[in-house]
Amino acid sequence: MDDDADAAEPIRPRAAKAVTARTAGGVPDIIRDMSDVWWANAFVGPGAAGNATCVVVDQGGGDDGDGGAPTVVSERRAAIARSLRAPDTVFVGPPSPSGVRAVHFCSPFEGAMSFCGQALVATDAVLRAGYPPPEAADAFELEGPLGPVRTHRRRPAADATAATASADAIAPVSWFDVARASVLATASSRLSRDLAPAISAHAPATVVDSGRRRVFQPVSDPAALAALVLDPALVLAHCRAAGVSGVCFFVITPPDRVDLRVFTVSLAGAEDAATGGAVLGLAPLIGPGRWQVHQGGAHPLGRGLLFLDDDPGADVLSVGGRVELVARGQLIGDRA
Known about the structure:
Helices cover 21% and strands 38% of the residues. By secondary structure, it is of the alpha+beta class. The protein folds into two domains: 2-178 and 324-329, Diaminopimelate Epimerase, Chain A, domain 1 (Roll), CATH 3.10.310; 180-321, Diaminopimelate Epimerase, Chain A, domain 1. An eight-stranded mixed barrel has the order 4-5-6-7-9-10-11-20. A two-stranded antiparallel ribbon has the order 2-3. Strand 9 (139-144) and strand 10 (147-154) form a beta hairpin. The radius of gyration is 19 Å and the shape is globular.
């Protein structure tokens, strides 16, 4: 992949070149010239390398526009995500006449996913760098598997960046907005007690659906949270048995800090470095505010910095983070 150009200067997209391929079932599909494949790190910050994300931008007729069966198109996306090996890959369609772009999310292990926060902020950063919006627009309107999502760019509030280095405190942040009503605390759960009884006994856990259902366990001791180690195989087995996508442990440090650990099915039970959907799921549990969420373990390569804005007077919740664009390149040949 070629090194990414300066994101401050819009990059002109090259024309997409369609290559016809055939699946084992003989159904024609399209693989685009992937000058539109980007590698990005989402939710980066001081001491936080963020989460690697691939963004595949289709400037042509779209994966769904070639007449292929939807199942075959979905399998093709999953195969590309497995080849790219990023924790998550998002496929971004061309703009409709009204300017809306379809987005589809895949992980190498899980395949198609209903929602992916890191993919949304990475998409915002990529589209601004290579496919800027019209002058009058300051946001991108996207349509995901669960419905409309809006992304935009702004700086976090001053009180949410006081703990960060000055350069990072003033850097623009990519955000996604979702309807408040779509984030629901649905039930209690014993899953976290089964996995980590020593730190889960003082308070009940809650299942929150924020596009994907996860178990959230409050923890009283920050040191115990930092020391937490879980067996990915056990996490995967327990999550599948409970019908959830992950388990999250968190500590609140007033006035505006949350420390978060997330273990996810999309990584076969391993820990995730930065999870926008999980941070969105904190909203009904921690209350209104402009929160700074520090996610991950001790090593910077396994950490992310995320922002959660919950204005009780608004009908949307916003999650944001800085995005580092790393590379841009092409896929080579067919992906089975």
